[in-house]
């Protein structure tokens, strides 16, 4: 184990995350990853066969975490609105907690070699499908308004992902406060609107 409690493999991966996020995959040499991890460049090959393997592990690890957590929400909760609230909170928390890792996922898909691209894309597609399942169920049960499920899921993902670009832990709002605001925005856009009887004209007035 390393002095900070990490294994050598974890130290290498953490260094790769730092440099991929800061400079981009192609501009991050293995020798610099090794330097930050505190090892000789050649020692990396005892743990990873090449730089591409580091990128694939980062993407696979955090997409699986995202998918697994959403699967758990769908199993744990039955109420569509509760599922929606939990999914929003989960997405924002994951993207603000692992900001660099998800930034890499969002920006470095083009750096994947052809042999790895289908697998990583399938993990992304699975997340979208799970979210669309959540939304479709709410629509079928009359809780959410009827709308294009794919577009609704893409809009929700884009909104929640964007939080990581501007959120600061020492800023004016906590993560939980941001989650509460986003829950309100998204839920109000999806919920079936019931007529407000207090604002409806009194039909009896026309009989007078």
From TrEMBL:
<feature type="domain" description="HTH tetR-type">
    <location>
        <begin position="6"/>
        <end position="66"/>
    </location>
</feature>
<keyword id="KW-0238">DNA-binding</keyword>
<dbReference type="Pfam" id="PF00440">
    <property type="entry name" value="TetR_N"/>
</dbReference>
<dbReference type="InterPro" id="IPR009057">
    <property type="entry name" value="Homeodomain-like_sf"/>
</dbReference>
<feature type="DNA-binding region" description="H-T-H motif">
    <location>
        <begin position="29"/>
        <end position="48"/>
    </location>
</feature>
<keyword id="KW-0804">Transcription</keyword>
<dbReference type="InterPro" id="IPR001647">
    <property type="entry name" value="HTH_TetR"/>
</dbReference>
<dbReference type="Pfam" id="PF17932">
    <property type="entry name" value="TetR_C_24"/>
</dbReference>
<dbReference type="InterPro" id="IPR050109">
    <property type="entry name" value="HTH-type_TetR-like_transc_reg"/>
</dbReference>
<dbReference type="GO" id="GO:0003700">
    <property type="term" value="F:DNA-binding transcription factor activity"/>
</dbReference>
<protein>
    <submittedName>
        <fullName>TetR family transcriptional regulator</fullName>
    </submittedName>
</protein>
<keyword id="KW-0805">Transcription regulation</keyword>
<dbReference type="InterPro" id="IPR041490">
    <property type="entry name" value="KstR2_TetR_C"/>
</dbReference>
<dbReference type="InterPro" id="IPR036271">
    <property type="entry name" value="Tet_transcr_reg_TetR-rel_C_sf"/>
</dbReference>
<dbReference type="GO" id="GO:0000976">
    <property type="term" value="F:transcription cis-regulatory region binding"/>
</dbReference>
